[in-house]
Amino acid sequence: MRPGKLIPAVFGLLAVSFLLLPLLVILPLAFTSSLFLIYPIPSFSLRWFDVLVTNPVWRAAIVNSLIIGIGTTILSTVLGGLASLGLREKLRFVSAPLSTLFLLPMVVPAVVLGVGLQILYARFGLSSTYLGMIIAHTVIAIPLVMVSVTNSLQGMDSRLELAAASLGAGPAATLLHVTLPLAMPGILTGAVLAFAVSLDEVVLNIFLAGPGQRTIARQMFAELRDNISPAIAAAAFLFIAGTIVLMALVLLMRRRVGGTAS
Amino acid sequence: MADFHIRLDGVTKTYGSLRVVDNLRLDIIRGEFLSLLGPSGSGKTTILMMLAGFQDASEGTIYVDGNMINDIPSHKRNMGVVFQSYALFPHMSVAQNVAFPLKMRGFGRSDIRERVERALDMVQLSTMKDRKPSQLSGGQQQRVALARALVFEPGVVLMDEPLGALDKQLREQMQLDIRELHARLGLTIVFVTHDQSEALTMSDRIAVFNKGRIEQIDTPRMIYDHPATRFVAEFIGETNLMEGEIAGREGDEAMVRLSDGCMMRVRARDGLERGAKVLVTIRPEKVELSDPPAAANSFPVTVSDTIYQGDHFRVQLQGAGQRFIARRDRRAAEWPQGARLHATFAADDCWVIAP
């Protein structure tokens, strides 16, 4: 290989290793039979996965993560998708500020958002409720949905919608049969990102959730502070495996929907 | 009396202070093939967009069958539209694309299948019905777009430079195909193009646009042989223009004194007053070249270049204080550069327009 190709290849390999090595180090520990997070692994065992599903605290955390994650995915995909559609209308003095406003939660520190929401929720009785958690996660997930949906809408030929109208499709039919199917790759990506963000989130959960809404991430965080058990590694394994499966699903669907679009 | 299908009355479109379409009055006859021809930015596409309902007219009224349609949304106008970019739905198969307008109109399943079949037959694409648009060539995609715009039997089909993205040979084939479809189906077609030869080939009438206004609307033959303005004369085909003024009339011919003093006989038109400033136009293929001078309207010229163009020669000439172009057959090869000849303009082929 010529040096012109070798250097980027080596650099790329290093970057990928930097990202993946920490995961590769922690993941095997999920299958340890030891009580501690240490190498070498004495023997292979699924005991910590067993703990995850039998221990009521972990079990509740998994269920909570799913409830809050699915709720967040649905709410933020609907709201973020609608915002993206609406913001295609270029109204002067309205569209640009609105879109900036919607993207703001991406840059607001989670602590600030947490404190603010805590005060607000206390007033509306949303503290320590599933709904409160879902709304809080939706706030931070909407920008991700919007970016990805807007992206796929911008890549769409606007004449397709004009064509649909000329062929007799009203606004609703055009949205249903043309716009949404073509924006589907972006919508799916946005939905997966929203779910991942909700799954991953700790800070807002600390501020807003009661013991009844502890999520996996929050539980991992709590465990890390008192006893570092391999159950954390097992939870992390589920996390990563789940995310990879979701991403693979999205890729597959994108290929089916969007493969012929370009 | 002509049966007007569409009437535009005082239609204006402004963007800020720019008048893209300026107080347009245009009657479109039922069943005609009307081309809107003009350079880009002349407003022709904007007119199509207003007819389709994609853009609102700033002023004026659009009538279809005598009913005002300004406030009717696109999806209720029942007009087929064919775009330059085809605008096929990439997530649907060819058959689903063509079925789309029928589905929107609530046709039954078997009825849809039958009509789609027929429409695809019409554009010779029956074998492609299960493919996705991306698996078709440009010409095939355009034929699908055509089938989709025709399958619901709209009264009017609007075409926005539909052949612009195709290569020359395919474009010429499609021109003939569309012309034939038009004749067979008796549709009213409004066809936007900036290609004058395309407009000449396909149209019953051509409206020549310039800066948001119609310069002339007439049959291709009248537009070519008797252009109304300098813009039309120069935009459609090539032409030679000579400045002069009317020196007098003799029966159905008029005398024009050219700027260098030569006299020229031209076909007379009404309203040519003695002393009026005029432009004389003559098409390059009507310029006769000969060694000895012919009887009348002959001027000495010098050959400055002869260019081989395959089926003809393009002869550049210098004479009477200006340049001329002549289109001659193969014998022109005998004339070397610098040859002194006589150019003859038959009075019948000389057309006079206002300067």
Give an overview in words:
The complex is a heterodimer of chains A (262) and B (355). Chain A has 262 residues and is mostly helical. Chain A has helices at residues 3-26, 47-54, 56-86, 95-103, 110-124, 130-154, 159-166, 171-200, 203-208, 216-226, 231-258. Chain A has a single domain (46-258), classed as MetI-like fold (Orthogonal Bundle). In chain A, helix 10 packs antiparallel against helix 11. Chain A is globular and about 70 Å long. Chain A starts with a helix and ends with a helix. With 355 residues, chain B is α+β, with helices and mostly antiparallel strands. Chain B folds into two domains: 4-234, Rossmann fold; 238-353, OB fold (Dihydrolipoamide Acetyltransferase, E2P) (Beta Barrel), CATH 2.40.50. Chain B has eight helices and 20 strands. In chain B, helix 2 crosses helix 3 (109-122).
Given the C-alpha coordinates, what overall shape of chain A results? globular
Overall body shape of chain B: elongated
* Number of H/I helices of chain B: 8
The name CATH uses for the topology of the largest domain in chain B is Rossmann fold
| Number of alpha- plus pi-helical segments of chain A | 11
- Give the number of domains of chain A: 1
> What is the CATH class designation of chain A?
Mainly Alpha
| Name of the CATH first level of the largest domain in chain B | Alpha Beta
> Main beta sheet of chain A, described?
none
Task: Give unreliable regions of chain B as ranges.
Answer: none
The helix content of chain A is over 70%
How many separate domains make up the residues of chain B?
2
